[in-house]
Design goal:
about 250 residues, alpha/beta, Rossmann fold, 2 domains, 8 helices, about 25% strand, binds adenosine-5'-diphosphate, binds magnesium ion
């Protein structure tokens, strides 16, 4: 089998809700290269979560095609599940389980051995500074800690592709900076990261950015390419430029 250079590839991907009344994703062509941090940026309601949920195999597309790690999705859902880790926008944590129990749960879900869970789990707790809280019930954690745990659970089976849906939303600036330096380390270690955000300045730290509106990409490029193209200093200004006079409903 020929190895694809793309970690994610969608062609004319469409997802309509309510019998077509809501066109959440509307012909999306997305290509994410292996080894890059790609930020999918767009206002609330632009279709980011719907896209992530189709890529992960949770949602069936209305029409269109997609490959995840070179395999057609959703046809290869089970196989593809081993190639990515996901930190959903709405946490997928078990709130009545402790940090360590959550990590163990996700490890078992991927059929990891007890030893693998111990080794990788301990490292992740250390990196994400959750060691001291490992026996605390998830429900009692702050938003930032839940985000950290969510990221740890996404990484437990050491997948090559990470889908982080608004992974840095609601965390303080110090943790956000830490997350980004950690994401870069993961990238340098060969991982591919697709991160979504409705916060434009997040995009500055990504390798490439896709600006999404009404279910399609309206612009794409590296942060410097985009700023140069529109002769502006921030990605926020690029977005404002592209939105014209339109007021976006939050
Ligand atoms: N289950 C659903 N049923 C109906 N409409 C939905 C559903 N999920 C999302 N939507 C709508 O689809 C659009 C895109 O939503 P979403 O993918 O969550 O965007 P984003 O993650 O960019 O905020 C929005 O208009 C949203 O209200
Ligand atoms: Mg969303």
């Amino acid at each position: 089998m020929k190895m694809s250079v793309y970690a994610v590839e969608t062609r004319k991907l469409v997802k309509h809700y309510n019998k077509g009344k809501v066109k959440a994703v509307n012909g999306l062509d997305l290509r994410i290269k292996k080894g890059e941090i790609y930020a999918l940026i767009g206002a609330n309601g632009s279709g980011k979560t719907t896209t992530i949920d189709m890529l992960s195999g949770v949602l069936m597309p209305t029409t269109g095609e997609m490959n995840v790690w070179g395999l057609p999705q959703p046809k290869n859902r089970k196989k593809i599940a081993h190639y990515f880790g996901i930190a959903p926008q709405e946490y997928a944590l078990y709130l009545d389980l402790s940090i360590w129990e959550n990590i163990t749960f996700f490890g078992k879900l991927y059929s990891l051995s007890r030893e693998e869970i111990e080794n990788t789990g301990k490292k992740l707790l250390e990196i994400l500074n959750l060691e001291e809280k490992k026996d605390v019930i998830a429900e009692q954690l702050s938003g930032g800690m839940k985000r950290r745990l969510s990221i740890a659970c996404a990484l437990i089976h050491q997948p090559p592709l990470l889908l982080f849906d608004e992974a840095t939303v609601g965390v303080d600036p110090v943790l956000r900076a830490y997350f980004w330096s950690y994401f870069r380390k993961l990238r340098d270690a060969g991982k591919t990261i697709l991160i979504t955000s409705h916060v434009m300045d997040e995009a500055e730290k990504a390798d490439r950015i896709g600006l999404m509106r009404a279910g399609v990409l309206i612009e794409e490029g590296t942060p410097s390419e985009l700023k140069q193209k529109y002769s502006v200093d921030t990605i926020e200004e690029v977005f404002i430029h592209l939105s014209g006079d339109e007021i976006i409903d939050e």
